[in-house]
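#structure-requests
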Amino acid sequence: MITLRRNGKPSLLLSPNSVLANALLRSIDILRPRALATRPARIEFVVGTQINGAPHLGTNLVQTTAFLLAKLARREFSTDTRVRFAALDNAPYEVVLDPETHTAYQQTYYHALGKDQIAELIERYYRGFFDSLSEATDTDYEVETYTDQQATPGFRAEFLRTLERLDEICWWLAPSHGVVHTRIPCPECGWAEKRADRTKLAHLDEDGATFTAVCLDHGPYEAHIDPEDDSPYLDLATLYRNLVKERALGRSTDTMHVMMKGGDWAFGCQLVDGALGALHAPPDHMPIRIFTPQVLAPTGAKLSKSLLRERGASALPADVEPWMLDTTAWPGSTDNYVDALV
Protein backbone atom coordinates (compact mmCIF):
# COMPACT_ATOMS: atom_id res chain seq x y z
CA MET A 1 0.00 0.00 0.00
CA ILE A 2 1.20 3.52 -0.75
CA THR A 3 0.11 6.35 1.53
CA LEU A 4 0.26 9.81 -0.01
CA ARG A 5 0.42 12.71 2.40
CA ARG A 6 -0.25 16.41 1.96
CA ASN A 7 0.82 18.85 4.65
CA GLY A 8 1.70 15.92 6.88
CA LYS A 9 -1.79 14.37 6.80
CA PRO A 10 -2.95 11.27 4.88
CA SER A 11 -4.53 12.47 1.65
CA LEU A 12 -4.85 9.49 -0.68
CA LEU A 13 -4.42 5.74 -0.37
CA LEU A 14 -3.45 3.63 -3.35
CA SER A 15 -3.70 -0.13 -2.93
CA PRO A 16 -3.79 -2.05 -6.22
CA ASN A 17 -5.59 -5.38 -6.33
CA SER A 18 -3.24 -8.29 -6.90
CA VAL A 19 -3.65 -11.98 -7.67
CA LEU A 20 -0.33 -12.55 -5.87
CA ALA A 21 -1.81 -12.08 -2.42
CA ASN A 22 -0.98 -15.65 -1.33
CA ALA A 23 2.44 -15.75 -2.99
CA LEU A 24 3.87 -12.28 -2.47
CA LEU A 25 4.39 -10.67 0.92
CA ARG A 26 6.17 -7.53 -0.29
CA SER A 27 6.63 -5.78 -3.63
CA ILE A 28 10.40 -6.19 -3.48
CA ASP A 29 10.03 -9.98 -3.57
CA ILE A 30 9.03 -9.77 -7.25
CA LEU A 31 12.75 -9.31 -7.93
CA ARG A 32 13.90 -12.29 -5.86
CA PRO A 33 13.68 -15.09 -8.49
CA ARG A 34 15.84 -13.22 -11.01
CA ALA A 35 18.19 -11.90 -8.33
CA LEU A 36 18.79 -15.42 -6.98
CA ALA A 37 19.24 -16.88 -10.46
CA THR A 38 21.66 -14.29 -11.84
CA ARG A 39 23.35 -12.82 -8.73
CA PRO A 40 23.78 -9.40 -10.37
CA ALA A 41 26.50 -6.97 -9.34
CA ARG A 42 23.95 -4.17 -9.59
CA ILE A 43 20.20 -3.68 -9.84
CA GLU A 44 19.10 -0.67 -11.86
CA PHE A 45 15.58 0.75 -11.77
CA VAL A 46 14.72 2.38 -15.11
CA VAL A 47 12.11 5.14 -15.21
CA GLY A 48 11.13 6.55 -18.59
CA THR A 49 9.28 9.88 -18.69
CA GLN A 50 8.19 12.03 -21.58
CA ILE A 51 9.47 15.50 -20.72
CA ASN A 52 6.60 17.21 -22.51
CA GLY A 53 5.58 19.38 -19.59
CA ALA A 54 5.57 19.65 -15.82
CA PRO A 55 5.32 16.28 -14.04
CA HIS A 56 2.07 15.48 -12.26
CA LEU A 57 1.33 13.18 -9.34
CA GLY A 58 1.26 10.00 -11.44
CA THR A 59 4.71 10.76 -12.87
CA ASN A 60 6.17 11.47 -9.44
CA LEU A 61 4.64 8.29 -8.02
CA VAL A 62 6.53 6.08 -10.50
CA GLN A 63 9.77 7.95 -9.88
CA THR A 64 9.44 7.86 -6.09
CA THR A 65 8.67 4.15 -6.11
CA ALA A 66 11.84 3.50 -8.11
CA PHE A 67 13.99 5.13 -5.42
CA LEU A 68 12.18 3.40 -2.57
CA LEU A 69 12.53 -0.01 -4.20
CA ALA A 70 16.19 0.69 -4.93
CA LYS A 71 16.74 1.29 -1.22
CA LEU A 72 14.89 -1.90 -0.28
CA ALA A 73 16.67 -3.99 -2.93
CA ARG A 74 20.08 -2.82 -1.76
CA ARG A 75 19.29 -4.01 1.75
CA GLU A 76 17.43 -7.17 0.73
CA PHE A 77 19.88 -8.52 -1.86
CA SER A 78 23.13 -6.98 -0.59
CA THR A 79 23.92 -5.47 -3.97
CA ASP A 80 24.53 -2.04 -5.41
CA THR A 81 21.44 -0.25 -6.75
CA ARG A 82 20.73 2.93 -8.66
CA VAL A 83 17.98 4.66 -10.63
CA ARG A 84 18.21 5.55 -14.32
CA PHE A 85 15.96 8.40 -15.41
CA ALA A 86 15.26 8.03 -19.14
CA ALA A 87 14.20 11.50 -20.26
CA LEU A 88 12.21 10.98 -23.45
CA ASP A 89 13.07 14.12 -25.38
CA ASN A 90 11.64 12.56 -28.54
CA ALA A 91 8.11 13.39 -27.38
CA PRO A 92 6.25 15.30 -30.12
CA TYR A 93 6.58 19.06 -29.71
CA GLU A 94 4.47 20.02 -32.70
CA VAL A 95 2.40 18.15 -35.28
CA VAL A 96 1.28 19.53 -38.69
CA LEU A 97 -0.64 18.05 -41.61
CA ASP A 98 0.40 18.09 -45.25
CA PRO A 99 -2.52 19.99 -46.84
CA GLU A 100 -2.34 17.85 -49.99
CA THR A 101 -1.82 14.31 -48.67
CA HIS A 102 -3.01 14.86 -45.06
CA THR A 103 0.15 13.09 -43.91
CA ALA A 104 1.01 14.03 -40.32
CA TYR A 105 4.50 15.35 -39.61
CA GLN A 106 5.98 15.90 -36.18
CA GLN A 107 8.98 17.60 -34.62
CA THR A 108 10.41 16.23 -31.39
CA TYR A 109 11.26 18.25 -28.31
CA TYR A 110 14.92 17.68 -29.07
CA HIS A 111 14.69 19.02 -32.62
CA ALA A 112 12.50 21.96 -31.58
CA LEU A 113 14.45 23.06 -28.49
CA GLY A 114 17.97 21.70 -28.87
CA LYS A 115 20.23 19.97 -26.37
CA ASP A 116 20.79 22.98 -24.09
CA GLN A 117 17.10 23.77 -23.64
CA ILE A 118 16.34 20.07 -23.04
CA ALA A 119 18.92 20.14 -20.24
CA GLU A 120 17.24 23.26 -18.82
CA LEU A 121 13.85 21.52 -18.94
CA ILE A 122 15.20 18.54 -17.00
CA GLU A 123 16.87 20.85 -14.51
CA ARG A 124 13.70 22.88 -13.96
CA TYR A 125 11.20 20.06 -13.53
CA TYR A 126 13.13 17.03 -12.32
CA ARG A 127 16.60 17.68 -10.89
CA GLY A 128 15.51 19.06 -7.53
CA PHE A 129 12.96 16.30 -7.01
CA PHE A 130 15.43 13.58 -7.94
CA ASP A 131 18.15 15.07 -5.74
CA SER A 132 15.70 15.02 -2.83
CA LEU A 133 14.73 11.39 -3.49
CA SER A 134 18.40 10.44 -3.86
CA GLU A 135 19.25 11.99 -0.51
CA ALA A 136 16.21 10.48 1.23
CA THR A 137 16.99 6.95 0.03
CA ASP A 138 20.79 7.20 -0.21
CA THR A 139 20.50 6.06 -3.84
CA ASP A 140 22.47 7.37 -6.80
CA TYR A 141 20.80 8.14 -10.11
CA GLU A 142 21.75 9.10 -13.63
CA VAL A 143 19.90 10.96 -16.35
CA GLU A 144 19.94 9.70 -19.93
CA THR A 145 17.98 11.35 -22.71
CA TYR A 146 16.47 9.30 -25.51
CA THR A 147 18.63 11.30 -27.91
CA ASP A 148 21.76 10.00 -26.19
CA GLN A 149 20.35 6.47 -25.93
CA GLN A 150 19.43 6.11 -29.62
CA ALA A 151 22.93 7.22 -30.62
CA THR A 152 24.69 4.37 -28.77
CA PRO A 153 26.09 1.43 -30.78
CA GLY A 154 24.22 -1.09 -28.59
CA PHE A 155 20.81 0.49 -29.22
CA ARG A 156 21.40 0.81 -32.96
CA ALA A 157 22.75 -2.72 -33.29
CA GLU A 158 19.67 -4.06 -31.50
CA PHE A 159 17.43 -2.04 -33.78
CA LEU A 160 19.11 -3.52 -36.84
CA ARG A 161 18.61 -7.04 -35.43
CA THR A 162 14.86 -6.41 -35.14
CA LEU A 163 14.71 -5.46 -38.83
CA GLU A 164 15.75 -9.01 -39.73
CA ARG A 165 12.43 -10.22 -38.28
CA LEU A 166 10.28 -7.20 -39.02
CA ASP A 167 7.55 -9.31 -40.64
CA GLU A 168 7.27 -11.36 -37.44
CA ILE A 169 7.08 -8.45 -35.00
CA CYS A 170 5.18 -5.79 -36.95
CA TRP A 171 1.73 -6.90 -35.83
CA TRP A 172 2.83 -7.00 -32.18
CA LEU A 173 4.11 -3.43 -32.40
CA ALA A 174 1.22 -2.13 -34.53
CA PRO A 175 -1.72 -4.52 -34.00
CA SER A 176 -4.26 -2.39 -35.88
CA HIS A 177 -2.39 -1.95 -39.16
CA GLY A 178 1.01 -3.67 -39.00
CA VAL A 179 2.91 -0.50 -39.94
CA VAL A 180 5.76 -0.04 -37.46
CA HIS A 181 6.51 3.63 -36.94
CA THR A 182 10.20 4.21 -37.62
CA ARG A 183 10.77 7.95 -37.86
CA ILE A 184 13.99 9.30 -39.33
CA PRO A 185 13.76 13.11 -39.34
CA CYS A 186 14.72 15.09 -42.40
CA PRO A 187 18.41 16.03 -42.10
CA GLU A 188 17.64 19.60 -43.20
CA CYS A 189 14.70 20.56 -40.97
CA GLY A 190 14.25 17.82 -38.35
CA TRP A 191 10.61 17.04 -39.20
CA ALA A 192 9.52 13.42 -39.71
CA GLU A 193 6.40 11.53 -40.75
CA LYS A 194 4.50 10.84 -37.55
CA ARG A 195 3.03 7.53 -38.72
CA ALA A 196 5.88 6.62 -41.09
CA ASP A 197 3.40 6.50 -44.00
CA ARG A 198 6.12 6.89 -46.64
CA THR A 199 9.16 5.85 -44.60
CA LYS A 200 10.34 2.54 -46.06
CA LEU A 201 13.15 0.08 -45.39
CA ALA A 202 14.93 0.04 -48.74
CA HIS A 203 17.94 -2.16 -47.99
CA LEU A 204 19.33 -4.25 -45.12
CA ASP A 205 22.69 -6.03 -44.98
CA GLU A 206 25.64 -6.57 -42.63
CA ASP A 207 26.67 -2.92 -43.03
CA GLY A 208 23.37 -1.49 -41.80
CA ALA A 209 19.97 -0.40 -43.09
CA THR A 210 18.92 2.20 -45.64
CA PHE A 211 15.56 3.94 -45.32
CA THR A 212 13.76 6.24 -47.72
CA ALA A 213 11.35 8.93 -46.56
CA VAL A 214 9.62 12.08 -47.77
CA CYS A 215 9.86 15.49 -46.13
CA LEU A 216 6.98 17.94 -46.26
CA ASP A 217 9.27 20.78 -47.38
CA HIS A 218 12.36 19.10 -48.84
CA GLY A 219 10.96 16.08 -50.66
CA PRO A 220 12.44 12.53 -50.78
CA TYR A 221 15.60 11.65 -48.89
CA GLU A 222 17.62 8.60 -47.80
CA ALA A 223 19.10 7.71 -44.42
CA HIS A 224 21.57 4.97 -43.52
CA ILE A 225 21.61 3.43 -40.03
CA ASP A 226 24.99 2.10 -38.91
CA PRO A 227 25.79 0.91 -35.36
CA GLU A 228 29.08 2.79 -35.37
CA ASP A 229 27.58 6.10 -36.53
CA ASP A 230 25.38 8.18 -34.22
CA SER A 231 23.51 9.80 -37.10
CA PRO A 232 20.91 10.01 -38.53
CA TYR A 233 18.48 10.42 -35.64
CA LEU A 234 16.42 7.29 -34.99
CA ASP A 235 12.99 8.03 -33.51
CA LEU A 236 10.94 4.92 -32.74
CA ALA A 237 7.29 4.79 -31.70
CA THR A 238 6.53 3.87 -28.10
CA LEU A 239 6.19 0.07 -28.34
CA TYR A 240 9.10 -0.26 -30.76
CA ARG A 241 11.33 1.94 -28.61
CA ASN A 242 10.61 -0.18 -25.55
CA LEU A 243 11.27 -3.40 -27.44
CA VAL A 244 14.70 -2.22 -28.60
CA LYS A 245 15.57 -0.71 -25.20
CA GLU A 246 14.63 -3.84 -23.27
CA ARG A 247 16.49 -6.07 -25.73
CA ALA A 248 19.61 -3.94 -25.35
CA LEU A 249 19.43 -3.78 -21.55
CA GLY A 250 18.72 -7.51 -21.34
CA ARG A 251 22.16 -8.28 -22.78
CA SER A 252 23.93 -6.88 -19.73
CA THR A 253 25.80 -9.60 -17.86
CA ASP A 254 26.28 -7.84 -14.52
CA THR A 255 23.30 -5.50 -14.13
CA MET A 256 19.70 -6.54 -13.60
CA HIS A 257 17.35 -3.92 -15.02
CA VAL A 258 13.90 -3.33 -13.57
CA MET A 259 11.43 -1.36 -15.71
CA MET A 260 9.29 0.99 -13.61
CA LYS A 261 5.97 1.82 -15.29
CA GLY A 262 2.59 3.28 -14.53
CA GLY A 263 -0.44 1.02 -14.51
CA ASP A 264 -1.54 2.36 -17.92
CA TRP A 265 1.33 0.36 -19.44
CA ALA A 266 -0.08 -3.05 -18.49
CA PHE A 267 -1.74 -3.77 -21.84
CA GLY A 268 1.13 -2.37 -23.91
CA CYS A 269 3.65 -4.66 -22.24
CA GLN A 270 1.72 -7.71 -23.47
CA LEU A 271 2.44 -6.57 -27.03
CA VAL A 272 6.10 -5.87 -26.29
CA ASP A 273 6.41 -9.35 -24.77
CA GLY A 274 4.85 -10.83 -27.91
CA ALA A 275 7.52 -9.11 -30.01
CA LEU A 276 10.25 -10.28 -27.61
CA GLY A 277 8.97 -13.81 -28.03
CA ALA A 278 9.00 -13.49 -31.82
CA LEU A 279 12.65 -12.44 -31.53
CA HIS A 280 13.34 -15.53 -29.38
CA ALA A 281 14.57 -13.52 -26.41
CA PRO A 282 16.08 -15.91 -23.80
CA PRO A 283 14.16 -16.16 -20.50
CA ASP A 284 16.91 -14.40 -18.55
CA HIS A 285 16.80 -11.54 -21.06
CA MET A 286 13.08 -10.94 -20.58
CA PRO A 287 12.51 -7.68 -18.70
CA ILE A 288 11.35 -7.42 -15.12
CA ARG A 289 8.63 -4.80 -14.76
CA ILE A 290 6.92 -3.23 -11.77
CA PHE A 291 3.72 -1.25 -12.30
CA THR A 292 2.61 1.51 -9.97
CA PRO A 293 -1.08 2.29 -9.45
CA GLN A 294 -2.55 4.70 -11.94
CA VAL A 295 -3.73 7.95 -10.37
CA LEU A 296 -7.15 8.97 -11.63
CA ALA A 297 -9.62 11.66 -10.78
CA PRO A 298 -12.91 10.47 -9.22
CA THR A 299 -14.49 10.60 -12.70
CA GLY A 300 -11.77 8.31 -14.08
CA ALA A 301 -9.80 11.02 -15.91
CA LYS A 302 -6.08 10.33 -16.39
CA LEU A 303 -3.64 13.13 -15.74
CA SER A 304 -1.88 14.29 -18.91
CA LYS A 305 1.27 16.43 -19.18
CA SER A 306 0.66 17.13 -22.88
CA LEU A 307 -2.94 18.23 -22.26
CA LEU A 308 -1.81 20.53 -19.49
CA ARG A 309 0.90 22.02 -21.69
CA GLU A 310 -1.40 22.59 -24.66
CA ARG A 311 -4.64 23.66 -22.99
CA GLY A 312 -3.91 24.32 -19.33
CA ALA A 313 -5.43 22.88 -16.17
CA SER A 314 -8.88 24.11 -17.18
CA ALA A 315 -9.00 21.39 -19.85
CA LEU A 316 -9.13 18.68 -17.20
CA PRO A 317 -12.25 17.76 -15.18
CA ALA A 318 -13.10 19.95 -12.22
CA ASP A 319 -12.44 17.09 -9.77
CA VAL A 320 -8.72 17.05 -10.63
CA GLU A 321 -7.25 18.92 -7.69
CA PRO A 322 -4.35 21.39 -8.17
CA TRP A 323 -2.03 19.40 -5.92
CA MET A 324 -2.30 16.46 -8.32
CA LEU A 325 -0.94 18.59 -11.18
CA ASP A 326 1.77 20.68 -9.54
CA THR A 327 4.45 19.16 -7.35
CA THR A 328 5.31 22.59 -5.94
CA ALA A 329 1.96 22.42 -4.13
CA TRP A 330 3.57 19.78 -1.92
CA PRO A 331 5.97 21.86 0.19
CA GLY A 332 8.89 20.33 2.04
CA SER A 333 10.60 16.99 1.60
CA THR A 334 9.69 13.88 -0.32
CA ASP A 335 7.84 12.65 2.78
CA ASN A 336 4.99 14.84 1.51
CA TYR A 337 4.77 12.68 -1.63
CA VAL A 338 5.09 9.16 -0.34
CA ASP A 339 5.03 8.24 3.31
CA ALA A 340 5.61 4.49 3.10
CA LEU A 341 5.79 1.62 0.64
CA VAL A 342 4.82 -1.74 2.11
